[in-house]
Amino acid sequence: MDETNLNRRGFLATAGAGLLGATAGCASPRTFAQQVVDIDQDDRADGSLYTDVYEQTIDSVTFLRVSGIEDPFSDDPGQGQGSGFLYDETHVVTNEHVVYGGDEVDVRYTNGEWAATEVVGTDFYSDLAVLEVDNTPDDADPLPMAEQMPVTGQEVLAIGNPFGLEGSMSQGIVSGVDRSLQMPGRSFSFPNVVQTDAGINPGNSGGPLVNLDGEVVGVINAGGGDNIGFAISSALTRRVAPALIENGEFHHSYMGITLETVDPRIAEANDLPEANGIVVTSVDPDGPAGGVFEESDDQVRRNGDAIPVGGDVILEMDGEPIPDRHALSTFLALSTSPGDTIPVDVYRDGERTTVELTLGARPTPGESDRGFPP
């Protein structure tokens, strides 16, 4: 866990404790959602389409309390919190970083019921985790996962527990699709990420980003700044979550290369016909790409920047165009598995040629991958 996440968790724990403490003096504490339901129907506003989606989904969105978190920067265990949603009749999906390091996770539904959980599987490389819950309310149905890829401009709603404020909803649009998201301190990027301008804050992590049909477009991962938030796509979640339930883990395809997207400067320095594809800057000789790809063997400086010279330029994989590193991440994440052997079209020594690559499995992450001190 990096220091940013730790600070965020510490804040969330404090905020959550304050909110829970505010109800401690009540004989029968109720959530905000329950209080609204208790109001006479004639005294309620008409609401909107967003209200309809909220009422359709909110019973399936959960508050997560994570206890006993090991803090690498402290000897004292901490407490964190986040959001989740009912994926099937007995499982809740959330973020891996929400539950990582905790020794106990409890969920609370919006009707006030608590449920004990067991973490059945986590995946660092997609930031997804699945919990098995010991009970679900009768009115909580699994949220359907969207099967269509979202499009920029599509309206979406973020539902969860920002700053411990349970049952909150914010509205926005899909601001971008197929992003690659690199979190602070992590040595890789999450693939196929959905960007949104819906309000996302600490505590929203793990909750659903839904479309106006109440389908999960993505699992909220983080807020990047003003009007920028991110979610792990439904497409990736539909691959990873069943494997976590079945096997407790998911294996991602791995090539063992470092790369850069070809831009006009790289194209010019390498006499490429166009600025397209990704250039292989280094190859792990012991990885899947060892002996398959040729790496960059030189560089030039342009306005102080190092420009790789030489090395294969990957153009297509298994017939799919790979115009940039985002396309490569999405292709590997959604269309391949470790052990697959695929044809790769590369530009090498002024000619286009095809090589065969057998994909490996991404190595188990170490503490340094999380930004922890060595």
From TrEMBL:
UniProt superkingdom: Archaea
Keywords, alphabetical: Hydrolase, Protease
The record's listing under SUPFAM superfamilies reads:
PDZ domain-like, Trypsin-like serine proteases
**One family name in Pfam for this protein:** Trypsin_2
Ranges where the PDZ domain occurs = 254-359
Query: Protein name, please?
Result: Trypsin-like peptidase domain-containing protein
**What species is this protein from?**
Natronoglomus mannanivorans
